[in-house]
Design goal:
With 349 residues, this protein is an alpha+beta fold. It is built from twelve helices and ten strands. The relative contact order is 0.10. It folds into two domains: 88 residues; 241 residues, BirA Bifunctional Protein, domain 2. The strands form two sheets. A seven-stranded mixed sheet has the order 1-5-6-10-9-8-7. Strands 2-4-3 form a three-stranded antiparallel sheet. The structure holds phenylalanine. Phenylalanine (PHE) binds next to strand 8, strand 9 and strand 10.
């Protein structure tokens, strides 16, 4: 029976060499397939005499059984190897620290803008937004600043495509164009009431980005402003003083604060004043700090809003939210706000 043992050993070796289920099925065909070696042995039985047939048949069957056992064992082993490989590939190290998505937060200047909107909102002011690319008309001319006006030189800015050669479009140098844009809309909306002699008051703030050719520790080419406008039949400088004082005390959470309206000049207000504040205690105590420009809306501007300056009067102010943010948090370099350094910005959360 030596010959049969050789076949069984050859089969076992072939199965062992098979590294994949497909290899194994090929190896199986060599021994148990239609033309396989065991099948050939079976065919050889026919030629044997009857008495030898029986013992030879039994021996071949035994060999066949041994080969099938080896085949099944190898099948299981390969399945096990495959499973282990898969488990390893999909392994999850539960001891690794989790991947976290850092919690985002609002920029300190955005926090200030939200605060400004909330405070003025509580005083009945609407919030309006307008384009950062402006026309010469809204940024200057409608605000009583004609083309040859010297005040324009303080508002050097970035000119962009559009408009005319004499009056190209520009990045707005202040939020004051929103005075005109908002008022014109308001007038259109309340035409009937105005004709009947009773316009609902214009009371709005307009926060946003503004641009000038300016860059140092306290000036950035892009900065923020927040415009305020209150126009009605009987709105006076006294109201401006009241509203702005109330705003500053609420914003800085301090009654220990005085305001000064220092005479100034803006083409679109008359009279005009810079608003300075002074803390009476704390690290900034005793210094006058400029926070806004303001004044009574100039009759020419009221006219450009589509209103009769003999009937309607009011005030406007433009403040610097960047400045307010610096004062509130004690930051002394404006550029820090716009450098995008997360170590600085995350301190405000
Ligand atoms: N627009 C002015 C500036 O940017 C500020 C201002 C606004 C002054 C409204 C008066 C009234 O300097």
């Amino acid at each position: 029976m030596n010959e049969l043992n050789v076949v069984v050993d050859a089969a076992k070796a072939a199965f062992e060499r098979a590294g994949t289920p497909a290899d194994l099925e090929n190896a199986k065909a060599q021994f148990l397939g239609k033309t396989g070696r065991v099948t050939e042995l079976m065919k050889g039985l026919a030629a044997l005499p009857v008495d030898e047939k029986k013992s030879r048949g039994a021996a071949i069957n035994q060999a066949k059984q041994a080969i099938e056992d080896a085949l099944n064992a190898r099948r299981q082993a390969l399945a096990e190897i495959e499973l282990q490989a898969q488990l390893q590939a999909e392994a999850l190290d539960v001891t690794l620290p989790g991947r976290q998505r850092g919690a985002g937060g609002l920029h300190p200047v955005s926090l200030t803008l939200e605060r400004i909107e909330a405070i003025f909102g509580s005083m009945g002011f609407a919030v309006a937004q307008g384009p950062e690319i402006e026309t010469d008309w809204f940024n200057f001319t409608a605000l009583n600043t004609p083309e040859d006006h010297p005040a324009r030189s303080m508002h050097d800015t970035f000119y962009v495509e559009g408009g005319s050669a004499a009056a190209p479009n520009l990045l707005r140098t202040h939020t004051s164009p929103m005075q005109i844009r908002y008022a014109v809309q308001h007038v259109k909306k309340h035409q009937a009431a105005i004709a009947a002699g009773s316009m609902p008051e214009i009371r709005v703030i307009a926060p946003g980005r503004t641009y000038r050719v300016d860059s140092d520790a306290t000036h950035s080419p892009m900065f923020h402003q927040c415009e305020g406008l209150w126009v009605g039949e009987n709105v006076s400088f006294k109201d401006l003083k009241y509203v702005f004082t109330d705003f500053c005390r609420t914003f800085f959470e301090s009654d220990d604060l005085v305001l000064r309206f220092r005479p100034s000049f803006f083409p679109f207000t008359e009279p005009s004043a810079e608003i300075d504040i002074q803390f009476q205690s704390g690290p900034l105590a005793g210094r006058w700090l400029e926070v806004a420009g303001s004044g009574q809306v100039h009759p020419n501007v009221v006219r450009n809003m589509g209103l009769d300056p003999e009937k309607y009067i009011g005030f406007a102010f433009g403040m610097g939210p960047d400045r307010l943010t610096m004062l509130r948090y004690g930051v002394n370099d404006l550029r820090l706000f716009f450098d995008g350094d997360i170590r600085f910005l995350s301190q405000f959360q």
